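hey can u check if this looks right to u? its 218 residues, i copy pasted from the old doc so theres a chance i mangled smth
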Amino acid sequence: MRCGRQRVTVVLVRRSVAYVCEAAPHDDRSAGHHLAPPACSLPRGSRASQQVRDVDANYKGVQMSLAYLAQPEQQPTVEWLAGGTFAVLLDAAATNGQLGVGRFRVSMGEAPPYHKHLREDEVFMLIKGTALLWCDDEEMELSEGGIVFLPRNVPHSYRITSPEADLLMMCTPGGFEGMFRQAGKPVTSPRQPGAEPSREDMVKAADDFGQVVIGPPR
């Protein structure tokens, strides 16, 4: 996909059916924004078009999100634990509630409480660094480039074991990223004393966003 003043071709996949769509570009670079709605078409009478009708019948009443783009400087970032930060890359508002994506940049020892989510499934990908991971009381090592899927209602936690780590978090449906916005303070330079979220703020935010704390960090 090329943005700017070129036309944009987007391929959207729903189940096993691909839609080839043409969308007019949106030239506003001042903030993260939705791209223009796509116009999708397939040859009439083709097997693919019949599959599209079948899928549309199954998805009747489900609104498809528009494409959304946010540059790094347009991604809200808050101070987090152990001197780290958390950036909201995509939130529920950008994805029609379907997905939330965030990125931790943290240091050795960063560890959330042992907890579970009531509302969303979670995926972690360790872009850089190493970590120990606990899932339903089973301990595992997560190496650089590793990825883990954590279903809702399954207790889990992690601890960063490398000097620095870069960790991508994805939650579906979206919305859980709001917990970090509520508990964390916007990043400042230089970092201000007391910037790290307080225990009281984290407990309140966790409760508001359906996170159940089971025990202390591991």
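Helices lie at 47-58, 177-183, 199-208.
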